[in-house]
Design goal:
Blueprint: E1 14-18, H1 22-33, E2 37-41, H2 47-54, E3 59-61, E4 75-78, H3 83-96, E5 99-102, E6 115-119, E7 122-126, H4 133-146, H5 150-165, H6 176-184, H7 187-192, H8 196-207, H9 213-219
Parallel strand pairs: 1-2, 1-4, 2-3, 4-5
Antiparallel strand pairs: 6-7
Length: about 220
């Protein structure tokens, strides 16, 4: 296995995107969704990037890439149509020890970006190690059908339950069977089918009195 699987926290970290086309814009949007502070360097920008810059959502430098752009950045993504620029970014990032991804050139990356499915706090990553992005896309589409939006609400509820149980004096390992039972009894499916009464009956059965869907969801926020 060549790649070490990891979920990277870019919240409030400075990230650089070189390029202003469709691919670069998509990379920018994903970084913003994850809370990164994004700077974009490109002489030509998509309309979406210009709008983001106008709203101060990104810092846009309308010029060609310079090595100094890497100063203070956590990671860099280069997504230009110019191979020379992409390889220069790669070389500079390697020299400075930066996390670097060159779009569509896995051999020039020290990390690659997987295809993924996001449902609230549920994040499922799919990678073919750069061998077949088309197959990764197919797997993503299959998983999207299997795991719907109900899993976002399901995980919010499970997080609220976990938060409440942590206030108990018993050891955290003692809670394992509780979560396993909730999963095995079909809590996620009940939420998907909007069967709130069934959810509350299950919560009462597993957790006891004082535990219902609405109350737990409020305390979990």
């Amino acid at each position: 296995m060549r790649y070490y699987p990891v979920n990277l926290d870019v919240q409030n970290r400075r990230c650089l995107v070189v390029g202003g086309g469709t691919v670069a814009t998509r990379k920018v949007m994903t970084l913003l969704e994850c809370g990164a502070m994004v700077t974009v360097v490109t002489p030509k920008s998509s309309e979406q990037l210009l709008e983001l810059a106008d709203r101060k959502s990104v810092t846009l430098k309308k010029r060609h890439y310079q090595t100094s752009d890497l100063a203070g950045t956590f990671l860099v993504i280069s997504a230009t149509n110019d191979k020379d620029v992409n390889w220069r970014v790669h070389s500079d990032a390697e020299h400075l020890g930066k996390l670097c991804n060159i779009a569509d050139h896995p051999d020039a990356c020290n990390f690659i970006l997987p295809s993924f499915v996001s449902r609230g706090d549920l994040l499922i990553s799919i990678s073919t190690s750069g061998k077949s992005p088309a197959f990764a896309k197919k797997l993503r589409e299959d998983i999207e059908k299997e795991y719907g939006e109900e899993y976002a609400e399901f995980l919010s509820l499970m997080g609220a339950i976990r938060k409440k149980l942590l206030f108990r004096d018993d050891a955290p390992e003692a809670h394992k069977h509780i979560f396993e039972k909730l999963i095995q009894k079909g809590l996620a499916e009940m939420i998907r089918d909007n069967k709130k009464e069934a959810v509350n009956r299950l919560l009462l059965d597993v957790l006891g009195k004082g535990h219902d869907f609405d109350t737990l969801m409020k305390t979990g926020k």
